[in-house]
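Why does residue order matter? Because the sequence determines the fold. Keep that principle in mind as you read this record.
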Amino acid sequence: NSKQYRMYMCNISTYVCSPKAASSVVFGTILSAPIMYLSARMVSINTVEESHFSRIIEQTRLDISVVSVVGILWVYFIFLLSKKYKSYTHIIVMHIMAAVVFMCIGGQLLDHTENEPYWQYLSFCIFFPSVMASRMWTAWLALSLFLIVVIGPHAAEKAWLPFLFSGWGIPLLLTMIIICVSSATSPPVDVSFLFGNTQLILSFVVLVAVFFTGSAFLGLMFIVARKRRKKTLINGSELTSSIHSSYQHSGSSLHVQQGIITPWEYDLNGTQLSKFVILLLLLLFSCLVGIMIVVWKLTYEEITGVYVAVNVLDTVTNYGQGFFIFIVLAFEKNWFWNALYRKIRQFFFHIEEVVVLSEEELSPSVKNICNTFKTHHIQHCKESIVSDKRYLLRVYESVFTGCDLVDWLIENHLAISREDAVHYGTSLLSARVIAHVLEEHYFYDEPLFYKFLK
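Structure:
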């Protein structure tokens, strides 16, 4: 068993580890952008005077907010285009994105309302709940992934209402507490911490809770998945499939047919969890940087070069959560390129969503037409009209056009007119005897390519 287990893990590494390593290199290269941006900011600093530092933070906040909001709008567009907004994990990410958008708006309002107390309070009521909500939803993303892997997607969906109320309710409650028990300080160097130590302490509590909760669920998720897989392998339920290569490989992920889900595979809704694990790691890193800056502000008052660097990094990782979501979720092939390609084809070529009926739903007349055709005519029809055809740069093998079939049906007295032949062809398509080569059209008397189905 131990030898077979090692063989199985070697097979997995061939199909999973190498693609993941390549993807990690790409993600690492993209993620170096915020670090390079931070380094460029540090090079431009000649002094650590409060006025200069305040301008640096304000400009950095504006730059990152613009990038983050644009990225979030793009991801929202992709989710709507691909209908991924119906997926459970995507809904959680959409709440994080909404929180980040409001946070960016609130941050900009705080920067421009320093001398207007009423607007300053209003801006804070937009800004602070959004910051806390983005952190709370990060924790719920970790818990959801844990439930999906360990129990199943249905268990995670049952926790949706508590997630919804706590994800937005707790931040609003914390904001009310801060406003009631504290008052705004004199114009601070960083307007993000308008209410001083009270805001810092509550922020510290939330950040620490989210970071350790998210890290714990992430670690437990991998531990439990690993133990379950190892136990299943030892019991032999997957050894046979590994030896006979009966697993399915799609992209860079392994689909386990026995129903055991690991963090690098798909849940029962077809959602690849690895991207959400990567996104969770980035968001937890943002929480860690937030903890560092809050601790610094609580313990030191002096502005030093290290403090400036950490503060800028906190601004980048906090307001840049939308950028993290963008680089992880914006350009997945099945969500974006295929959906965009299909929308373009719908616009220019008027492609259709072909609805296929089950055998029970077919009318008796359609069944009679199809049975007669398959019994007496299909072989002769294939020999007469099927051939390889070229369209633009692509060759379609063993196809025929709608016009070809209409002509053949009339020549062989199976239809008395072209309209009657189209009705005949539509019956064949409804019964899955023939189909459009790209499943994009019903049957028409046009030079569209069709094929016989086996």
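The beta strands are 248-250, 253-255, 387-391, 394-401, 434-436, 449-452.
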